[in-house]
Write a structure and sequence with these properties.
Number of strands: 8
Radius of gyration: 22 Å
Structural class: alpha/beta
Helix content: 40-55%
Largest sheet: 4 strands, parallel
Low-confidence stretches: none
Number of helices: 22
Number of domains: 3
Length: 449
């Protein structure tokens, strides 16, 4: 007799993406039907992304009122709404491994996306949106950046982008930085390495595309916080995109290329005893979870996985080691803090909240719910309205208590929330909340100029 739900924490099987069966569409449809039937009978995930309401509407409008009545051509409607947040697997589903039903919804959606990509059914516009390293070629060239940013902010260009790239003309879009983070990063002082029981005493920074090309200030704030705590650091000598945008697209061959470009460099730092820090949760998650699941037999990938830290996971562990300074000089008042999905999936707990609570005369309103942005999902014309619908409750919760700051470890989610607060008239015009990354808040609280 099958038992109801799991009594154990979910475990992840390696992703068998190199097997011919992985790309067998008939076998995929059989697995989709099996999984959809379980989901239909449970419906616990209906409040997450739009994949589940889409599936349940298809079932409820079918002739049989069961999954067998749904046209298999409509399965992709469910797949296209999944943006790989992983929350159904990590927080909701009672049938994940080691349960005998072995249900992995997000990785089954990934398999469907990979088949769609292999069949050439992914448009050029989506491929361009996922090519963050290509976008970044604009960054760091002041005159070019100023022109590109100015043009991209015009209504005419946004309409053109909507027509050609499928980017909703009303969605918030990041600007390019006039100086890349890697070019402007200050060198570390020659501090003595102080290893703790839990933490290495030296840090290697994996910049990420977003910090390097769009908001380098986040990276500079991280360096200032490390410097204040007398933690020596280096920037990884060479890096490419972590592969998450391609992963969400189902372009696994490109993810493999990113892995081959990044892992040898990162593994060198892991072997030398560095903690590797990445300030963007999606990038951190790629090295902690997705790349190891794609390459379970790679020893260097395993080393990088074990050496990779979220910045606040590292800082809180340093405090437990008795090696973190708590000489905060500036209270921050009320902070509404959002925990992004890819931060929650790392299974590290509320480390950013834990750090922010160390700041005197500062209160934290923590919101643990998906913002709906989800990488490129939230900016696409076909999904932007749904992204705002998913995120509207978050915006309302973030506006509670008239905060001085709104913050998220995922800066894209932060901007999305800020936009929804403004569109839904949730902003106090007399005292508008400032959007600031948690690393910026840490630097501010320390009183670092």
């Amino acid at each position: 007799m099958s038992r109801e739900g799991n009594l154990e924490a979910p475990t992840r099987h390696a992703l068998d993406w190199k097997s011919p069966d992985f790309y067998d569409e008939e076998k995929l449809n059989h697995e989709l039907e099996r999984i959809f039937d379980i989901c239909h009978g449970c419906r616990r995930c209906v409040s997450l992304c739009n994949s589940f309401p889409t599936l349940f509407d298809l079932v409820d409008n079918s002739p049989t009122l069961e999954v067998d009545g749904v046209d298999k051509k409509d399965y992709m409607k469910v797949v296209d709404e999944c943006y790989m947040c992983d929350l159904c697997y990590m927080t909701k589903c009672p049938y994940t491994p080691p349960h005998e039903w072995n249900l992995d919804f997000p990785h089954t959606m990934l398999r469907a996306k990979a088949i769609k990509f292999k069949k050439g059914e992914v448009g050029l516009n989506e491929k361009i949106l996922a090519s963050t390293d290509v976008h970044g070629q604009f960054a760091g060239i002041p005159i070019v950046v100023q022109v590109v940013n100015a043009v991209n902010s015009t209504k005419l260009m946004r309409s053109v982008m909507e027509a050609t790239l499928g980017v909703d003309k009303n969605a918030w879009m990041p600007s390019f930085a006039t100086e890349k983070f890697r070019h402007g990063a200050a060198k570390s002082e020659d501090f003595v390495v102080k290893n703790g029981e839990r933490t290495p005493g030296k840090v290697a920074i994996y910049s990420t595309c977003y910090v390097n090309y769009n908001e380098p200030g986040i990276g500079h704030d991280l360096l200032k916080v490390l410097d204040h705590n007398e933690i020596p650091y280096v920037l990884v000598d060479k890096e490419q995109c972590c592969g998450m945008p391609k992963f969400e697209l189902g372009d696994l061959d490109s993810v493999a290329k990113s892995k081959e470009a990044n892992i040898p460099h990162l593994a060198k730092y892991a072997k030398e005893g560095y903690a590797i820090l990445s300030a963007i949760p999606s990038c951190t998650l790629m090295f902690k979870q997705e790349i190891p699941l794609m390459f379970p037999g790679c020893a260097d990938t395993k080393l990088v996985q074990e050496a990779m830290w979220d910045p606040f996971e590292y800082l809180v562990a340093r405090k437990k080691d008795g090696l973190l300074k708590t000489d905060f000089k500036k209270p921050l008042g009320k902070i509404s803090y959002h925990i992004p999905c890819h931060g929650r999936v790392q299974n590290i707990g509320k480390k950013t909240e834990e750090f922010l609570k160390l700041i005197p005369e500062t209160t934290i309103n923590t919101v643990e719910r998906c913002s709906g942005h989800a990488g490129t999902y939230g900016v696409k014309k076909v999904h932007h309205t749904m992204a705002k619908k998913i995120g509207k409750p978050v915006a309302k919760l973030m506006a509670n208590g008239e905060p001085d700051y709104i913050s998220s470890d995922c800066q894209l989610a932060g901007h999305h929330i800020e936009q929804m607060m403004d569109e839904n008239n949730l902003v106090n015009s007399q005292k508008p909340a400032k959007l600031a990354h948690p690393l910026t808040l840490a630097r501010t609280a320390y009183g670092i100029e």
